[in-house]
């Protein structure tokens, strides 16, 4: 008996494409979110992978639906098409994505995310072709792909450090630290001192610090952390991890005197990890506009899970046990709004300052002022590995940085890789 082939249902194929594009866009938020653990990232990644598989099974119908969403310019479209193009070894579609990446930063980011998503085996040959391209963006994408998969880009990386194109140069300088290239430490420090491009200078200083250099790089990071700019937060957080506690205190004092830097200060206190500031931090939890960030800083220092009932503030309820609708809506939103824009820290739990104050009175003696703590302990390789296994994404990102700082030359753990690949790496590191 023979069976007729099952006809392809266009509506189902379009749903796979639309969902894949949407989920890839959401994933870009989740990988840096303060409330997402790796198990939740894995569940999301499995959903995304299922839709991508559905597109692959649809064959030409899948490609037709991808073309439509690409023409519509939907968020995640370049990611979806690029993943399918790479996994199907469809050179024509890959070549179509490259001009978009060369002209549109958002498309470049999506293509880089696709290179991060696919397996290393699928990239063999493609990265060599990208490195051979005369276009600087293509060569930068090749470096990004190698670094994402913890593979040394080799000569292509070395050549990028002195390229005339600032974007490629910055990409190479950043990857030097992420790949653990200690042979390039002095070159990174020199670039941090001399490069005229701000992004390249920051990338060079960041890598020099990760590779063990503490003089020139810290001077540049201090400069970048002292003024408004796109690299301020990252420069400040990296600097606070390597400065002695007294110097870190001076930096925090300077930040506290600056108008409009309160949110930056709250995060910085958590990164500095000095329990000397804990009374001040707990007081900030009594201020509605600062409470959530103060709670995250408390968790970053102590390792406490503020999502547990032992620490969070219970919202007020009406007599019927439901939350007051007026309290549930932001002041600038109405009940008829379809979309309410949330603050970046709205996903953080709201801490109960009285509960946390009680915990600190009972446990604070374990924390010595003037000592740096990260997630409840002084940073160590074994402790950072534990945080990589069980922490939230922002905490895991910090743990990955700490592993490099503690052992210069260690490749940076990619906390944005597909969750199943991260788990394989963690298993190997544990073994």
Explain what the structure shows.
The chain has 431 residues and is an all-alpha fold. The radius of gyration is 24 Å and the shape is globular. It has helices at residues 10-30, 38-57, 60-72, 77-87, 91-103, 105-117, 120-123, 126-131, 136-148, 155-160, 166-178, 185-194, 198-210, 216-225, 232-242, 245-256, 262-272, 278-284, 291-302, 325-328, 353-363, 381-390, 393-406, 419-430. 63% of the residues lie in helices and 0% in strands. The longest helix has 21 residues, at 10-30. The termini are far apart. It contains 24 helices and no strands. α3 (60-72) runs antiparallel to α4, α13 (198-210) packs across α14 and α22 runs antiparallel to α23.
Mean pLDDT, to the nearest integer, reads 90
Q: How many strand elements?
A: 0
Structural class: mainly alpha
Order of helices and strands: HHHHHHHHHHHHHHHHHHHHHHHH
Descriptive terms for the model:
431 residues; 24 helices; 63% helix; disordered N terminus
Concise structural overview:
The protein is mainly alpha-helical and 431 residues long. The chain is built from 24 helices and no strands. 63% of the residues lie in helices and 0% in strands.
What is the topological layout?
Elements: H1 10-30, H2 38-57, H3 60-72, H4 77-87, H5 91-103, H6 105-117, H7 120-123, H8 126-131, H9 136-148, H10 155-160, H11 166-178, H12 185-194, H13 198-210, H14 216-225, H15 232-242, H16 245-256, H17 262-272, H18 278-284, H19 291-302, H20 325-328, H21 353-363, H22 381-390, H23 393-406, H24 419-430
Helix pairs in contact: 1-2, 1-3, 1-4, 2-3, 3-4, 4-5, 4-6, 5-6, 6-9, 9-11, 11-13, 12-13, 13-14, 14-15, 15-17, 16-17, 17-19, 18-19, 22-23
């Amino acid at each position: 008996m023979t069976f007729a082939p099952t006809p392809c249902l266009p509506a189902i194929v379009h749903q796979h494409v639309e969902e894949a594009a949407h989920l890839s866009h959401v994933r870009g938020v989740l990988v840096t979110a303060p409330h997402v653990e790796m198990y939740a990232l894995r569940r999301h990644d499995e959903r995304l992978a299922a839709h991508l598989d559905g597109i692959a099974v649809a064959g030409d119908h899948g490609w037709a639906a991808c073309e439509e969403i690409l023409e519509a310019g939907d968020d995640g479209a370049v990611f979806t098409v690029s993943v399918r193009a790479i996994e199907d070894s469809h050179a024509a579609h890959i070549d179509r994505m490259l001009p978009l990446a060369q002209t549109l930063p958002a498309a470049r980011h999506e293509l880089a995310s696709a290179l991060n998503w696919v397996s290393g085996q699928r990239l063999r040959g493609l990265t060599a072709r990208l490195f051979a391209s005369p276009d600087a963006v293509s060569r930068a994408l090749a470096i990004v792909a190698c670094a994402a998969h913890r593979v040394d880009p080799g000569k292509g990386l070395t050549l990028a450090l002195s390229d005339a194109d600032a974007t490629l140069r910055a990409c190479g300088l950043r990857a030097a630290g992420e790949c653990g290239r200690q042979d390039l430490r002095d070159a990174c420090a020199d670039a941090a001192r001399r490069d005229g491009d701000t992004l390249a200078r920051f990338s060079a200083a960041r890598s020099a610090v990760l590779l063990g250099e503490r003089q020139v790089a810290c001077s540049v990071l201090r400069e970048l952390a002292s003024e408004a700019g796109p690299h301020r937060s990252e420069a400040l957080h990296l600097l606070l991890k390597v400065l002695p506690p007294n110097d870190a205190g001076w930096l925090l004092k300077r930040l506290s005197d600056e108008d409009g830097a309160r949110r930056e200060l709250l995060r910085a206190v958590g990164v500095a990890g000095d329990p000397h500031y804990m009374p001040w931090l707990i007081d900030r939890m009594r201020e509605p506009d600062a409470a959530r960030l103060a709670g995250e800083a408390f968790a970053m220092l102590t390792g406490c899970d503020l999502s547990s009932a032992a620490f969070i503030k219970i919202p007020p309820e009406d007599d019927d046990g439901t939350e007051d609708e007026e309290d549930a809506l932001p002041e600038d939103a109405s009940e008829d709004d379809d979309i309410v824009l949330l603050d970046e820290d709205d996903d953080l739990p709201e801490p109960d300052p009285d509960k946390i104050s009680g915990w600190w009175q009972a446990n604070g003696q374990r924390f010595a002022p003037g000592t740096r703590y990260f997630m409840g302990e002084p940073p160590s390789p074994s402790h950072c590995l534990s945080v990589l296994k069980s922490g939230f994404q922002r905490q895991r990102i910090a743990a990955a940085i700490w592993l490099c700082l503690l052992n210069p030359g260690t490749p940076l753990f990619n906390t944005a890789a597909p969750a199943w690949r991260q788990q394989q790496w963690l298993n190997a590191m544990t073994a």
